[in-house]
Design brief:
By secondary structure, the chain is α/β, with parallel strands linked by helices. Helices cover 43% and strands 13% of the residues. The protein has helices at residues 2-28, 45-48, 73-89, 104-113, 128-134, 155-159, 184-189, 199-209, 224-232, 250-264, 280-285, 298-305, 341-351, 354-360, 371-377, 386-390, 404-419, 425-443; strands at residues 62-68, 93-99, 120-124, 171-177, 179-183, 216-219, 269-270, 289-294, 311-314, 326-334, 396-397. Helix 14 crosses helix 15 (371-377).
Amino acid sequence: MKKRLSLSLVLVLAFALILTACGGNNGNKGKKASESPAASSSAPATESASPSPSAEAPKDPVEITLSGWGASPEEQALLQQTLDEFQAKNPDVKVKYEVIADQYMDVIKTRLVGGEGPDVFYMDAFEAPKMIESGVLEPLDSYVTDDFDIADFEEPLVNAFKSPDGKSYGFPKDFSTLAMFYNKKMFADAGIAAPPATWEEFLDAAKKLTKDKTVYGFGAAPELARQMYMIKAFGGKLTDENYNAAFATPEAIQGLQLVIDQRVVDKTSGQPSDAGAGWGGEMFGQGKAAMVFEGNWAIPYLNANFPELEYATAELPTVNGQKGTMAFTVAYVMNKASEKKEASWKLISYLTGKEGMKTWTSKGFALPSRKSVSAELGYDKDPLRGALVAGASYATPWQAGPTLPIISTNFNNQFVSAYLGDQKLDAAMATAQETSNKEIKAAK
């Protein structure tokens, strides 16, 4: 009896142990893998295939805003292609691109003041000094790494977005200089074998090419944006160290007088309005000017609107033995108030880096501000664009400190008057300088 009872007790205890073991396994199913003693490489395949509850969920990409002005549909498509390539390589960043069609700078300034500015936006070199001075732009030097290769940029272009103390506030996305566009048939008919290389040769060619008032040897643009390099040709300056107007000096006037004399004395130049044209490219395309000084923007315009026109380009003629031209450039800059600076720099560094810039400038709508990209795309040896690229290393950027808007308005008003022969150049420049400095003082 005792033996039978003992055997029964053993069986009961054994069954209880089996139930306890099964209950323990079921209890572990509700625990995290890190808490479960069964969580090991020997776990069933069906359980190991399931995602661990402790793994972090994928983060949403950081959205940044990019603002710029409008362009042609072809350029907009090219920019979108560049942005798509950036986002494919940087899935952690989403770019919201916004076109500001009208009053671009007014809109940007208003939004910045109101704390609603974009993270990244276009900045023309003309506006850069004033915007840097206002303190709304983020200095970029601390973000730059060695592989960004600042030395690859054309020096005058990258310097256009530096503060007086040398800090960089933007990097140029593209540019254009001015080159001499000339009508090949008119040159051949006049017996001119090669484009003029000096100002003296240029004046001589203009005389041979002028035909009463039906064809001007040169189609001029009598405005400061095209004449600043002429001020520098004999050592003149547009402004002093305090950004007051300083262009009414004998040195500055000596260069500007060459432009006036060609019109008033030689009578071999005219402005577009003299020929019923809206700008130099149209005047040239219509055959009303044998030579004009224009930028890269004129090439697609002439090819589209005057496909039969035979023309070529050359560097601008030297003045006083010096090479000179103007440069027009735009940078990507960062809003100092942006809360997404790391992502914003990723975008800027890609768009102004070698890869992004190659895509953006691949169609020739704009020229790359990086020397290596220009060489890779062949623009430095291009029959039409080579002269524009060559001028980048010695060009004068369209920029002259925060007072340039005031100076430009007064200069243009008086210079056009002198160009038309209504007053002497020295008197016109004295008036423009005096008026500019009064307005600058009043604005302080």
